[in-house]
Amino acid sequence: MMHRIYTVPHTMVNEAWNFDGELDSSPAAPYRDSLISGKVNAHFATKNLYCDFYKHFALDIVTETVFEYPYAHITEKTIRPIVHKKMFLLVAPAGTLTMLHDYGFRTFSNFINEDYDKIQNPHDRIKSIVNELARISKFSIDDMQKTMLQYKETLQYNYDHYMWLCNNEIEQVVDKL
């Protein structure tokens, strides 16, 4: 549901548009949207489902902010699967996995063909990523669960290493002040 609340004094209606692009409010009921009225509806009833949705992923396909940077970069998108202890495949600039390795993180090269990270040409890199995703998509759910169990130590290591980096980088900044 998208909202636009007018600040013009003569406007009394909160426009609440539904996903079909239709107006879902009127002057008689200007705040029918539960996000404004606070009344429980399907959105709030399923809020926990959306919060817990990520735990059902075996592999996170991380699409970084920009795919064609001439240099590797890491954002919160790459950190998300590390913090949630998930395997990941990066749709990112060349060298991003190498940068993660340089920071001390481990990846999943025995399961995921990570050669795509070395491909400089973005068109060839995306083709390689798509081919790898097509290969992985053929695995059964049971096979994916077994693979996750095989990488349990790596996933925990990455999480612990991230926490260690966070604490030490803050200490380094404080020490420099």
Please tell me about this protein's structure.
With 177 residues, this protein is mainly alpha-helical. It folds into two domains: 2-45, no CATH class; 54-176, no CATH class. The protein is built from eight helices and four strands; from the N terminus they run E-E-H-H-H-E-H-E-H-H-H-H. The strands form two sheets. Strands 1-2 form a two-stranded antiparallel ribbon. Strand 3 (59-63), helix 4 and strand 4 (87-91) form a beta-alpha-beta unit. The radius of gyration is 22 Å and the shape is globular. Residues 1-21, 30-36 and 40-50 have low confidence and may be disordered.
Instruction: Give a quick account of the main beta sheet: strands, pairing sense, barrel closure.
Output: 2 strands, antiparallel
Global geometry = globular
Mean pLDDT: 77
The end-to-end span amounts to 46 Å
Helix content: 40-55%
The arrangement of helices and strands along the chain is: EEHHHEHEHHHH
Structural class: mainly alpha
Strand content: 5-15%
How many E strands?
Answer: 4
Total helices: the number is: 8
The gyration radius over C-alpha positions equals 22 Å
Q: Numbering strands along the chain, what is their spatial order in the largest sheet?
A: 1-2
Query: How many discrete domains?
Result: 2
Name the poorly predicted regions: 1-21, 30-36, 40-50
Summarize the structure.
By secondary structure, the chain is mainly alpha-helical. It is built from 8 helices and 4 strands; from the N terminus they run E-E-H-H-H-E-H-E-H-H-H-H. The longest helix is centred in the C-terminal third of the chain and has 25 residues, at about 150-175.
